[in-house]
Automatic annotation (TrEMBL):
InterPro entries: HTH_MarR-typ (IPR000835), MarR/SlyA-like (IPR039422), WH-like_DNA-bd_sf (IPR036388), WH_DNA-bd_sf (IPR036390). It comes from Thermoflavimicrobium daqui. It comes from the Bacteria. It holds the Pfam family MarR. One of its GO terms (molecular function) is DNA-binding transcription factor activity. Residues 1-133 form the HTH marR-type domain. One of its GO terms (biological process) is response to stress. The keyword Phosphoprotein does not apply. This is MarR family transcriptional regulator. SUPFAM superfamilies: Winged helix' DNA-binding domain. Keywords: DNA-binding. SMART domains: HTH_MARR.
Amino acid sequence: MLNRNPGHELSLRVVLFHQALADRLGINITDHKCLGILHEEGAIPAGRLAELTGLTTGAITAVIDRLERAGFVCREKDPKDRRRVIIQPNMEKAKNEIQPLMEPMIQEMSQLMSSFNQQELEAISRYIDKTIHILEQAASKLQKAKNTSRDK
């Protein structure tokens, strides 16, 4: 392939992997990615999940409804502010259902990482960290532009 773009290929494969994983779990990819955020963040208010994803509060409500029906989260009243709802991930269910599906890929990735020396791993890590930063900035700019165009 003459114009091979490894970054594009990697992005596509990551999306397709997560779509396949979501399909196996019986949820959609947006719900799956929100569940991933909850796994990283722990219990958070629904509004915070909306902020982290860039989704509207209405869209987040629908995501939470679907994840709750699937047993992956539950809603709890915020003891400090009864108007707020805290989304509590069901870590046991996630561990029991998601971990077995991811384990083969995790093992292969671990084997791949062990094939690189420390200097190579540091270079890869720097590249990934800088890529994450660029993606965060690009997403933020897109979100701000979307919000600005809505205000007009």
